[in-house]
Amino acid sequence: MDNKRILNWIPDIPDFRDYKYKNLIFSLKGSDALLASSDIPMRTKIRRQKESDKQGVLVFGKKGADYAFRLGISNEETTSITAAEAIRLFEAEANEEAQKVSDTFFDIYEFTKKNLFIRKSEVPKDRGLQEAIEKVEQLKELLPGKKDYFDDLEYVMKELGDLPLKFARTIRAIRKEHLQEDAQDLFDEVPHDYLIKIIEEADSIEEGEESLILAEEL
């Protein structure tokens, strides 16, 4: 694990708003505790006996400007978790003693690492999102002058999985009887330049260097 990189990265995670942990992280910078932790060899792997409803191998990494926390449940199954969930799982008492990793650790770790930045297009979509994608395919034919817009909208939804679900509801609500009005509501809520920005950011992440920062067994 790389403690300095963890401390530099976590405060910038967009959905991490827990000031208890942010304050702790900032207080550690330049401290003796951080200096001592720098002596821990890179790629050190530990197991903890922390009581939790989540068990497995927790992996944290970044790629370009993106980041991911993923919990490996077995050598065939992983699940994504939020930054807030992960930081609370990483929390430990100062006197906690590390344990040796289990015999299953490396198989789960390798599978989780391989799937850390799995493309969202490979993740099963809920029925509501699938219906919205089908509606976009219909709108391409009904509004051919907006084909470029709907092509990009479909790509963001189908391949990137980065469109907020509230917009999927707006798409599903479009009716032929009020096509122009309903479509304009969509264009106002989800402007084309917003879609282009999502695509450009996804491209930069795809090209970015992938770094594994931390892994521990729970």
What is the gist of this entry?
The protein is of the alpha+beta class. The chain contains ten helices and five strands; from the N terminus they run H-H-H-E-E-E-E-H-H-H-H-H-H-H-E. The protein folds into two domains: 3-121 and 208-217, no CATH class; 124-205, no CATH class.
Question: Could you please describe the fold and organization of this structure?
Answer:
- It is built from ten helices and five strands; from the N terminus they run αααββββαααααααβ.
- It folds into two domains: 3-121 and 208-217, no CATH class; 124-205, no CATH class.
- Helix 6 packs antiparallel against helix 7, helix 6 packs across helix 8 and helix 7 (147-160) crosses helix 10 (192-207).
- It is 49% helix and 14% strand.
- The protein has helices at residues 3-9, 19-28, 32-37, 83-90, 105-114, 127-142, 147-160, 165-172, 179-189, 192-207; strands spanning 46-47, 57-63, 66-74, 77-80, 210-217.
- The protein is elongated.
- Strands 1-5-2-3-4 form a five-stranded mixed β-sheet.
- With 218 residues, it is α+β, with helices and mostly antiparallel strands.
